[in-house]
Amino acid sequence: MSVKLEGMPTNIATADTFTGKKVIDREGIEYGKVKHIHINQDTLAVSGVTIHQGFNKDFFLSEDYIDKFSEETLLLSRPPVRTGIPVTDIDRHKIGKVKRLHRNPDTNELESIEVSDGLMHSKILSKSEIWGVGEKVILRMTKEEFKSLE
Prior knowledge:
3% of the residues lie in helices and 43% in strands. It is mainly beta. The longest helix has 5 residues, at 143-147.
């Protein structure tokens, strides 16, 4: 439990007050709970958070996903793409699941996703092929167009 010290500004809080808070987006989809707050060692600004979704299901969100912390939740500015979530086509037909995320090593920005459509088959799609993200990833193509990709 954190304690407000005398003379401490009102808009400052300790990082441990945020751990355990629920993480939700603007549509009310819950993504887990805050496990860690990551601080940039040079600027001392928040650089991101680790979200805990359950047994061995943690993922990192950079600061550009964070809208604000409220008393009980971390509010996200946009929904994140995560591994293991379903992928559908533009007509909501199931294609597979997100197997892997490919990020730019310098900026940590998402560049592409690897979609598994079976035990042995997967295809890499540019982030421009993503139409929407929420509880599922919706692609800008039909299932037939996905199957015809190399």
